[in-house]
Amino acid sequence: MIVENDLAATASALISAQMSATPDPTQRPRVNVRHPDVMELVAAQVAVHFHSSIVETLRDHGGKITVGNTTLLLAEQFGFCYGVKRAIDLAYASRQVFPDNRIFLIGEIIHNPEVNRQLRDMDIVSLPWREMDASYDALTDDDVLIVPAFGAPTTFMDKVARRGCYVIDTTCGDVMKVWRRVRGYAKDHVTSIIHGKSDHEETRATASRALGEDGTGHYLMVLTLKDVDFLCDYIVHGGDKVGFLARFKGGHSPGFDPEIHLKTVGLANQTTMLKSETEEIQRRIRKAVIARNGDASAFQVFDTICGATQERQDALIEMLRQPMDLLLVVGGYNSSNTSHLVEMAQPLVTTFFIRDASCIRSLDEIVHFDLHDRREITSYANLLANPGPLTVGITAGASCPNNLIEETLFKVFELRGVPRAALDKV
Prior knowledge:
This protein is an alpha/beta fold. It has helices at residues 7-20, 36-50, 53-60, 82-97, 113-121, 134-137, 154-163, 173-187, 201-210, 225-237, 241-247, 258-261, 275-293, 307-319, 336-345, 402-415, 420-424, and strands spanning 64-67, 70-74, 103-106, 124-127, 144-147, 166-169, 191-195, 219-222, 265-269, 299-301, 326-330, 351-354, 365-370, 375-380, 390-396.
């Protein structure tokens, strides 16, 4: 194993090799920090911070554990996906390769408070992501800038390039697939209809790519089926252009004209949206284009829901076929893929969206996030206090580490009178 005082030499060799391979010596390359020795140290760090042996054991044995009259179910797919693991690994590796440099991160690496807290403890400083402020002007060519898993708008990337920083790009491969699609739309003069949250980092990054290489492309963001129905009505019948632009204010490209830029459209989406809703949006827009044109030649579509998001949604559907008294969905409140799991489950079972185990305060008090009011609330229920048999389900989005799932599992059993030691024997 590499020792700590060898890392400076490793870092120097990595950077020198990559700089010598860069045609323009005035431009810093995106640094590949995935050196085997570095990643060995990173794997050990990440395991200490986020691993859970009991969660892995449960996953391997069908995701079900019963002790006494309490049964706990885990979804077949939950927690960190490959893209999230990769982003975290790269962020940890950046501190190993650059032990003495200032390291900055655009926004959050992923949407999980515990993960981002660990990075802050490593002296990785989060910069604003909604807009660039003076902190970006203060970056130097000795600084390191981490691009989060969601990616970042082209304006941010251009600014960082001008500052000459080292760049560690952790953008998820599924997100970059969407970027390639919307760039293709722009090249072919097709307007991108982006299904996503207009204030989400990924959607903003995708929208910037929808402008195309020359900046002449166009996009329109839609979130709800009501947005889509409004759009479809305009596609078929036309209407009040001023009213249309007001409806989608802040969610369209500069100079967007619905009378011109809705003639040929292509659908893309934030990769973590609800699969069934995206499919319904595809169907409605295609139907509208056919109603206007007589065929679907002016409508393009490409499935850009990420595989991990789909797997976790499908796993929850299967889980909901089993009888449960209560479902706990664990993850960051600003996590899109996690919130969609909550949306799927709420009509079918009593569901609480919790940040971590500390939200379960007692047998009858749970602090959780209300998706409708967009705030944390406290509910009082006697579900956990029920002395009879109880079945509790747990799932989590792609940005939730296993240690938080473990603590939630322990908390449920402890409140039901089952100590941690008893679970070690299961």
